[in-house]
Design a protein that fits this description.
Blueprint: H1 2-10, E1 17-20, E2 24-27, H2 36-63, H3 67-70, H4 83-112, H5 118-124, H6 128-145, H7 151-160, H8 165-192, E3 204-206, H9 218-225, H10 232-237, E4 257-259, H11 270-293, H12 304-316, H13 322-347, H14 350-360, H15 366-380, H16 388-402, E5 414-418, E6 449-453, H17 465-497, H18 505-546, H19 550-567, H20 573-595, H21 604-628, H22 636-645, H23 650-653, H24 661-664, H25 678-686
Antiparallel strand pairs: 1-2, 3-4, 5-6
Helix pairs in contact: 1-2, 1-4, 2-4, 2-5, 2-6, 4-8, 6-7, 6-8, 7-8, 8-11, 8-12, 11-13, 12-13, 15-16, 17-18, 17-19, 17-20, 18-19, 18-21, 18-22, 18-25, 20-21
Length: 687
């Protein structure tokens, strides 16, 4: 019977110890030679045999002849699968080896001394009475929840935090085997840029992240904008004042690779996973382009063998050490980041590239765009046609030569785009995604104008399509302000040509409104170019020159771009909408003046009254928004623009309204004029 017991505990039941699928291994009923106490001890030992048999079945299903069921060929098929599960079974089998050895030792002991009792077996196997139920709980959780991949690391790690030393030691052995798979994937990903993950088990995946970026809570937005506590009309005017949350600084575009958060073990911080992602992406990008461009050297400075040896050393450690792990990741990341910094800043000329971006997307070459506005005015004042884009680019090339743009290699990389919504037989709207269709066709070529730039390798990792699209948004906005400013200056030239002629009251109103419009637009232009663009750009250059780390450069550049969008009020809906309305009114006013260079006739007088009233209302709305935001330390852009417009309190004394004839005759501001601003003169010198 003792030998049959040992065979049953090894997984081979017989006539005395029978196997039942539901109840497991048990002593056969009604055996006359067994005392009830012996039956109780034997059934207790049979629980070990039951767990061992089920361990063997689990291991065999995942590593033996049923491997095809465990590794489904189709994505999403139910079942256990993956190399991490295979590693778990390998570790589990090694944990069961002491149990098998104990049974072998018992057999030899009973062969040497047949008088040993069942209690000796119970005593020898007592250490496994605590271990097997705990390990079985892990196996059952894996089977019930179909846990696979790096999720296994999290599951085993949680169960290994038990207070029982045998259980903790056994699960730590299993975890060490599973970590071996993770280290192999880390080695191929970080050192060679290869994502070997057939069953989607790693915490890095190919494709963009599926997580949605949450919006800023309403209370935090109110605190940020400094509008908490406003009531009545002010709160209604600012109810849409929402600053849209920017994308993650290090993920401003749809990446080729991203983190799979559900697979990341909790004991590996997200910051470490982000570094692993960055290193692998950089190595893959460099190695792929290295084949095409035949560049010498390695992004890891030929230290792949050294880093591989250090990863293997960590793999051999019985326990996972986060400090050693993160130190090695930081070491690899620093090597990659420094190499990318040298590649971008010293070899690819990042500072020169930023100067190009500033000159064209941010209108740093003011004389070029002034010449372009003059030459392309007749092309873009009407709705675009199929040939508008070609004609506009010809005008842009001519303007560049006219202002003596000396870089002939630069112009072929720049291209002005004009969004055209004409019918194209090759592009049927029935075959297009409805969400991608435009809401309405542009009314003029100016509203459809954009700028594209062909970024050279390897600068494309910093100036991604999404980043260039944000630059394009700023470009369109700055160009609209510059164009309206040029139109108002042209109206001033018309006024100077006719100053010796007699004028009436309507002319006085017209030219006074023009002065107020020019005052507001000139100060807006000065604020954008000096307070925002020049200030932020100088800070960006200072940060780039003070660091030798690519990730820090990318973070600084993303911060620079976010500040441009925020401080230009492109993300601040009420201010941006109000400024656009003001620019549109100024444009319509200039069109009216150009159509009627002399005194306004009876048909133009109502239109002039409408423009004067609209400008007064919008300027009043702008003043209320700017002055209602109390927390100027947080939202300094609003305070700076208000300072530009209301430097001598003319705006305040006139009731927050510009363009109104009555406001200019207010006795409280006699001798005061908005046009005394020194910023306007400085602006013309700056441009």
């Amino acid at each position: 019977m003792i030998h049959e017991l040992l065979m049953a505990l090894t997984g081979y039941p017989g006539s005395i110890f029978v196997w039942n699928r539901d109840s497991g291994l048990q002593v056969s009923q009604n055996l006359p030679f067994l005392h009830p106490g012996e039956t109780s001890i034997l059934n207790r030992l049979c629980k070990l045999g039951t767990d061992y048999i089920r361990f063997k079945e689990f291991i065999e299903q995942c590593t033996g002849r049923l491997m095809q069921e465990c590794y489904p060929s189709q994505q999403g098929q139910a079942g256990l699968h993956g190399i991490y599960l295979h590693a778990f079974c390998t570790g589990l089998d090694s944990v069961l080896q002491p149990y098998r050895q104990s049974l072998l030792d018992l057999e030899q002991e009973f062969l040497a001394d047949p008088h040993l009792a069942i209690a000796h077996v119970n005593y020898s196997l007592d250490q496994f009475q605590l271990l097997f139920p705990s390990v079985m709980a892990v196996v059952e959780q894996i089977k019930s929840q179909k846990i696979h991949g790096c999720q296994l690391l999290e599951t085993v790690h949680k169960h290994s935090c038990a207070g029982l030393p045998p259980v903790r030691s056994a699960l730590e052995k299993i975890l060490a085997v599973c970590h071996g798979v993770m280290y192999k994937q880390l080695s191929t990903w970080m050192l060679h840029g290869l994502l070997l993950d057939k069953y989607e088990e790693f915490f890095i995946k190919q494709g963009p992240s599926s997580g949605n970026i949450g919006t800023q809570p309403e209370e935090e937005e109110e605190e940020y904008l400094g509008i908490r506590g406003l009531t009545g009309k002010q709160l209604k005017e600012l109810q849409d004042l929402r600053l849209i949350e920017e994308e993650n600084m290090l993920a401003t575009t749809l990446k080729q690779f991203s983190l799979r958060a559900e697979m990341l073990p909790s004991y590996i911080p997200v910051r470490v996973a982000e570094k692993i992602l960055f290193v692998g992406e950089s190595v893959q990008m460099f190695e792929n382009q290295n084949v095409k461009h035949t560049r010498a050297g390695s992004i890891l400075k030929n230290q792949e063998d050294t880093f591989a040896a250090e990863l293997h050393k960590l793999k051999q450690q019985p326990l996972f050490n986060l400090v050693d792990f993160e130190n090695l990741i930081d070491k690899i990341r620093s090597t990659v980041a420094e190499h990318l910094w040298k590649l971008l800043v010293e070899e690819a000329g990042l500072l020169g590239q930023l100067k190009i971006i500033k000159d064209f997307y941010l209108l740093g070459r003011g004389e070029l765009f002034q010449a372009f506005i003059d030459s392309a005015q007749h092309l873009l004042k009407t709705p675009p046609t199929a040939v508008t884009e070609h004609d506009v680019n010809v005008a842009f090339q001519q303007s560049a030569h006219r202002v003596l743009l000396d870089d002939d290699n630069l112009l072929p990389l720049l291209h002005l785009t004009v969004e055209y919504h004409g019918k194209d037989p090759k592009d049927s709207t029935q075959n297009r995604d409805p969400s991608s269709l435009p809401r309405e066709a542009p009314t003029t070529g100016w509203s459809a104008l954009g700028l594209s730039y062909k970024v050279q390798w390897p600068l494309h990792i910093l100036f991604t399509p999404a980043v260039l699209e944000k630059y394009n948004i700023v470009f369109k906005y700055l160009l609209s302000v510059r164009r309206v400013q040029a139109e108002l200056q042209h109206c001033w030239a018309v006024q100077m040509q006719r100053k010796h002629l007699a004028s009436n009251q309507t002319d006085a109103v017209k030219w006074r409104v023009r002065n107020h419009m020019a005052f507001l637009v000139d100060n807006l232009q000065y604020y954008l170019q000096v307070d925002v663009l020049e200030s932020q750009f100088s800070q960006l250059l200072q940060q780039i020159n003070s660091i030798r780390d690519f990730e820090s450069i990318r973070l600084a550049h993303d911060h620079f771009l976010s500040n441009l969008l925020a401080q230009s009020f492109i993300l601040l809906k009420p201010v941006f909408h109000c400024l656009n309305e003001i620019l549109e009114l100024c444009h319509n006013f200039c069109s009216l003046v150009n159509q009627n260079p002399g005194p306004i006739d009876d048909r133009g007088a109502p239109q002039l009254d409408f423009l004067v009233t609209g400008f007064s209302q919008q300027s009043s709305q702008l003043f209320k928004i700017l002055s209602s935001v109390r927390n100027h330390q947080i939202n300094s852009g609003l305070a700076q623009l208000l300072l530009r417009l209301d430097y001598n309190k003319y705006y305040t004394h006139s009731g927050g309204t510009l363009g109104s004839f009555a406001s200019d005759l207010s006795p409280g501001v006699a001798g005061s004029s908005p046009l005394v601003s020194g910023s306007v003169c400085n602006l013309r010198l700056h441009l």
